[in-house]
Write a structure and sequence with these properties.
The complex is a heterodimer. By secondary structure, chain A is mainly α. Chain A contains 8 helices and no strands. By secondary structure, chain B is mainly α. Chain B has 7 helices and no strands. The relative contact order of chain B is 0.07. Classes of the chains: A mainly alpha, B mainly alpha. At the A-B interface, helix 1, helix 2, helix 3, helix 4 and helix 5 of A face helix 1, helix 3, helix 4, helix 5 and helix 6 of B.
């Protein structure tokens, strides 16, 4: 896939997401299911790469870009990630405090609720690909629990999971 | 309010944007306290930029950076600050991804990577849960109905995410819980 077309697909995903990994379902639909330029395994790995580095969750788009089209794809991913940020400037300029209107606030809130349902739907095939053994299921469940019940940094969850999987492979 | 120099602004974002683990929220909190401490903006102004950043599409902290950079130093401020926040970590992520391909031939590296990928599934599930957790307490019914409807429309009826988001926005404009 050429990097410009890839940019258009990725920016479609980032422009329609409002928080964390809510762009995931769009990317999965376009690049994995429709155009077959990315595998589920690569998408999973991209999510992990995005979380294993400091900075925002949205960084995984750079990794997705690299998987699809190499370094030029990574640049396309980076551009797609930063493009929507600049929309805040006209908003600051013109919208001001209108964003506090109840109807607008409620619409945004409801989109975030829908995003959680969409992420869950997108996770079903990803989990089928990634959780091939009871040990891997245990890792996924404990990662979920650590993040929900403690304020631990995800980097420790990722490092710990790598060590556990490595230790079990060595034994 | 003192007018900080572009270089000072970019350096602050470079430091906080690239050294704070754990996603956008801790980094935004760190930026907030730096702005107030250095008297670059009032906490009211920060509050406006923050709430607009939450409704700007894409990554919240990038929108916050663009908005604050613009506020402090105009368009060049916005551009320099977004570059400072996003380039170093993007290069790191691209290098990690490049490494992934060369690891696939090594059995032990692959074992570690499959562990990391399993953790990513748990992390994403936690992310989805944490997204709705604050709403689950105050508007539980609406949260469950909307999240389940979105799940079904996506998984069973294969609707695209954008169609679902438009439906959700319309529903939200009328159903204010």
């Amino acid at each position: 896939m050429n990097p410009f077309l890839l940019y258009l697909f990725l920016v479609k995903a980032t422009l329609t997401s409002f928080s964390g990994a809510t762009s995931l379902p769009v990317i999965q639909r376009d690049l994995v299911e429709t155009h077959h330029v990315l595998t589920l395994r690569q998408l999973n790995a991209a999510m992990a790469a995005g979380r294993a580095t400091p900075g925002p969750m949205g960084l995984y788009v750079v990794s997705v870009g690299y998987f699809v089209a190499g370094p030029a794809g990574a640049v396309a991913g980076w551009l797609a990630m930063i493009t929507p940020a600049f929309f805040i400037i006209p908003m600051l300029h013109y919208l001001g405090k209108r964003a506090e209107q109840p109807a607008v606030k409620s619409a945004i809130q409801t989109v975030i609720m829908a995003a959680a349902g969409l992420i869950a739907a997108a996770l079903v095939p990803l989990a089928k690909d990634a959780l091939a053994s009871p040990m891997l299921i245990a890792i996924a469940v404990s990662s979920f629990a650590v993040l929900v019940f403690t304020r631990r940094d995800p980097i420790w969850v990722i490092a710990g999971s790598a060590l556990v999987a490595l230790a079990i492979a060595l034994i | 309010m003192p007018q900080p120099r572009l270089r000072t602004i970019a350096l602050l974002f470079l430091k906080i944007g690239n050294l704070t683990f754990g996603g956008g929220d801790p980094a935004m909190a760190a930026l907030q306290s730096e702005f107030i401490r250095r008297e670059w903006m009032s906490s009211e102004r920060y509050g406006l930029i923050y709430s607009l950043a939450r409704i700007t599409p894409g990554t919240n902290i990038l929108a916050l950076s663009a908005g604050a950079g613009w506020d402090l130093a105009g368009w060049s401020g916005a551009i320099f600050v977004v570059l400072a926040v996003s380039v170093p970590t993007s290069v790191l992520v691209a290098l990690l991804t490049a490494g992934f391909d060369s690891f696939t031939s090594n059995r032990l590296a692959m074992a570690a990577i499959s562990g990391v990928i399993a953790a990513a599934v748990g992390i994403m599930a936690a992310g989805a849960y944490l997204l709705i957790k604050p709403h689950l307490r105050r508007r539980a019914l609406k949260t469950c109905v909307i999240a389940c409807a979105a799940f079904l429309l996506a998984a069973q009826f294969k609707m695209t995410p954008i169609q679902i988001f438009v439906l959700a926005a319309l529903a939200g404009a009328f159903w204010r819980a």
